[in-house]
Amino acid sequence: MRHYNIAAIPADGIGPEVISAGVAVLTSLQQRMGDLSLHFTHFDWGSDYYKKHGVMMPKDGLATLKGFDAIFFGAVGAPDVPDHVTLWGLRLPICQGFDQYANVRPTRILPGISSPLSNVGPGDLDWVIVRENSEGEYAGNGGRTHRGMPEEVGTEVAIFTRVGVTRIMRYAFKLAQSRPRKQLTVVTKSNAQRFGMVMWDEIAAEVAAEFPDVTWDKMLVDAMTVRMTLKPKSLDTIVATNLHADILSDLAGALAGSIGVAPTANIDPERRFPSMFEPIHGSAFDITGKGIANPVATFWTASEMLRHLGEEDAAQRLMAAVERVTKAGVLTPDVGGTATTEQVTNAVIDAIHSANR
Description:
By secondary structure, the protein is α/β, with parallel strands linked by helices. It is built from eleven helices and twelve strands. The longest helix has 19 residues, at 15-33.
């Protein structure tokens, strides 16, 4: 019996709904397999916790999480709490505190889900976006002076280090090398940002020499949006800065049909700390409590978590069940269906138990 301890942090908005669905599906999967044990410990950290205690999580939160094998995260953000408070109070301290420097976002069109792109279907769009997750534009370096005065100044300083850029570039090249097409696109804005972005380009060329079997090219981020939209089949693995990849991965999710199906993995490749897995969609307070949140992103996220833990068979079984359900048309409204969160969840559980193996 292989046993894993998972920290579940549902947090805000639809987070509790989709994490509950994810735990139910993972529980059914371990029952079906028989040799896999997942133990979940739930933490009530988030905006409600903040309203009671003045912090998004306890001061010893990272120390508490450090002993877990993985973190299963819902979403952060609330309409009555400033976004910078929720983000910097919970999600970013975990990502940065555990040096989860590789944010990995797979994107493909699942069976039964239509892309807004014409003449693009399952198999035509199959990307993995690698986002530098520890520095760059989200380093938190900057400040504000002369507040409230006409001459008020706000600075936001992007930090790029040779160590940070080299390690994310090497991770992306290795990932590209492991995929059938062995192709990587490096995204920057080095025509306008002539220091950090030029360093990105230079380091990409240096690291590329270590991977002669990987074909690579580079794109400016604005041109990349055009290529993703008009020539999606030309892309495979993509690496970009914290900000650029954050934006491009949302576009990728939309092009695959909905950000409601897109997963995220925040990885510490050196495995010194637990990695964190979350759906991409955010807290979505406009549909919170309506029972229509799409749980597919959370199921796919759970599959990526299993894969990271070394449970490849379990990961494949889960995604096979999800794809059987989407292909059968059991879909939530964001992807053109009429099913509820609970109906999609139950259908995936049924698919897990009715699978041939």
